[in-house]
Amino acid sequence: MNEVKKVTVIVVFGVLLSISLPHLTTLNQTQNLKTETAPNTEATTSNEVAIATPEKDESGTPVDTTQESPVQTEPQVTETPQEPVVSIPQAQAEPIVYDGLTMNELTEKLNRSLHSTLSGTGASFAKYAIEMGIDPYLAVAIVLHETGCNGTCSKQVKQCYNVGGMKGGPSCNGTSYKKFNSLDEGIYAFMSNLKENYYDKGLTTPEAMNKKYAASTSWAKKVHHYINKIKAA
């Protein structure tokens, strides 16, 4: 009896095993297939983290955000050095020296009456007249009368630079007239003579000078004639 049960149990177990074995194999294959095809969430998650979606501008063009934004710095202001202010002195007007004229104007006025050898000597006459306090019109008028330099000057002027008919030595070509080494020397000597021997003694007009300067009584009148011409020039 026991042997029969054992055989029966073995047979039943074998039948059941034959029936269930294909189902177990299929189930195992299905589980393996699910395992193989299941998504790798860790990899996917890892990839999603590694690959960043690029930013885009308004037109849809990708924008490179890897570059650092430039640091905004305030512009440096360079101060321009101030140039020193140079004050330019104002040109002063020439002073009036005689008859409402400046020295230059007086020189030009005298030059308009001086000709021949005395041409252009107005500056010397003006300079010495103002320095010595002599009327420049009177001084030049005496010269024009004594030397004839309103036209052609006398030999005393041309050869000996004697502009006022002064007498003394050294002699001019054996005459009683004095000789000088230059026109300026002769003009200075003439002006000094007027100052020392006439003006310093109060003789400041042609009439006051006439008796001492010339024997002719018409000398003063002739000198006045030249004074008027010089003033009108």
Compact description:
Helix content is 52%, strand content 4%. The chain has helices at residues 2-37, 41-50, 103-111, 122-132, 136-147, 155-160, 183-197, 206-213, 219-232, and strands at 55-56, 62-63, 96-98, 101-102.
Account of the protein in words:
The structure is a single chain. The chain has 233 residues and is mainly α. The chain has nine helices and four strands. It has helices spanning 2-37, 41-50, 103-111, 122-132, 136-147, 155-160, 183-197, 206-213, 219-232; strands spanning 55-56, 62-63, 96-98, 101-102. The chain starts with a helix and ends with a helix.
Radius of gyration: 67 Å
* Helix-strand string: HHEEEEHHHHHHH
Structural class: mainly alpha
Q: Largest sheet at a glance?
A: 2 strands, antiparallel
CATH architecture of the domain at 96-232: Orthogonal Bundle
Total number of β-strand segments?
A: 4
Shape: rod-shaped
Summed over residues and divided by their number, the pLDDT gives a mean of 81
Number of helices: 9
Arrangement of strands in the largest sheet: 1-2
Key descriptive features of the protein:
9 helices; mainly alpha; 52% helix; Lysozyme; 233 residues; two-stranded antiparallel ribbon
Topology:
Elements: H1 2-37, H2 41-50, E1 55-56, E2 62-63, E3 96-98, E4 101-102, H3 103-111, H4 122-132, H5 136-147, H6 155-160, H7 183-197, H8 206-213, H9 219-232
Antiparallel strand pairs: 1-2, 3-4
Helix pairs in contact: 3-4, 4-7, 5-9, 8-9
